[in-house]
Design a protein that fits this description.
It is built from 9 helices and 9 strands. The chain has 253 residues and is α/β, with parallel strands linked by helices. It has 2 domains: 150 residues, Rossmann fold (3-Layer(aba) Sandwich); 67 residues, no CATH class. The strands form 2 sheets. A 7-stranded mixed beta sheet has the order 2-1-3-4-5-8-9, with helices on both faces. A two-stranded antiparallel sheet has the order 6-7. The radius of gyration is 19 Å and the shape is globular.
């Protein structure tokens, strides 16, 4: 979410006075939220709600209480450490029930689920919600384009219907297949050594090169936003296709 945080700081000060950072206790979803809070608070954006730090697994009731705490504060910006679509929907439905619509809203996970996301709420309510990710159906990547064509041939629909989990799983398979072919074995230790040897592999999500801690420094991150007419577009990062809309319309029933 680093590019999102930097974008927020380009807004007029009157549009970035307050922010909330609710989390649902997840090692992947929470760190980007924590980092965003540090960046924005350092620049003068007031934190009105935050629940960082290691926590036990949370229940739906706890998520709803966190969402209610956010809605009662009415921050202009809300950055959600959601772990999946169901957890995000709790926030959305709670915000709706309290007649609270943030001006700017981004979630760690959930909006990247394509048609599955739109099927769970009024498509008009998806508008302007953002999410970070490394893949979308229109990415200019030959491997990705072949995968998209194969997926549509089997399941129908369009590239916009394919959620990012498909590309992530497919990329994991590509990396494993390349490692097995290169080492000539399925021995886990040899595959790990190969993947940490500095080799760069190509996947539907782009290049992959693993550091010793598993980080992929070759990966390129996007920020996506749902825009009118159900368009899911990259608005920050490489291959940016649209400008961010910074005033979310009120929830519709």
């Amino acid at each position: 979410m680093a590019s999102f945080a930097q974008w927020v700081l380009t807004l007029p000060p009157s549009q970035r006075q307050t922010a909330a950072y609710p989390e649902v206790s997840d090692p992947f979803a929470d760190p980007p939220v924590d980092s965003t809070e540090k960046t924005l608070s350092k620049a003068g954006v007031k934190t009105v709600m935050s629940n960082p730090g290691p926590k036990a697994a949370v229940s739906n009731a706890q998520i709803q209480r966190a969402a209610t705490a956010v809605a009662e504060k009415h921050p202009q910006i809300v950055v959600i450490g959601s772990v999946d679509l169901p957890s995000l929907l709790i926030f959305i439905h709670t915000f709706e029930a309290h007649n609270y619509t943030p001006n700017v809203m981004i979630a760690a996970s959930g909006p990247d689920q394509g048609q599955a996301f739109l099927n769970k709420l009024n498509p008009a309510n998806a508008q302007d919600i953002m999410v970070p990710n490394e893949w979308f159906g229109g990415v200019q990547n030959a491997l990705s384009q072949v995968m998209v064509e194969d997926y549509i041939a089997k399941y129908g629909g369009t590239s916009a219907d394919i959620n990012a989990d498909v590309a992530e799983a497919y990329s994991a398979g590509e990396v494993l297949a390349d490692a097995v072919q290169a080492t000539g074995t399925v021995d886990n230790a040899k595959i790990i050594n190969y993947l940490h040897s500095g080799v760069t592999l190509q996947t539907v999500q782009g290049p992959v090169k693993f550091l010793s801690n598993g980080e992929n420094p070759a990966g390129k991150a996007f920020i996506f936003q749902w825009q009118p007419n159900g368009q899911f577009l990259p608005v920050l990062g490489p291959q940016k296709q649209a400008r961010i809309q910074a005033q979310k319309p009120h929830w519709q029933t």
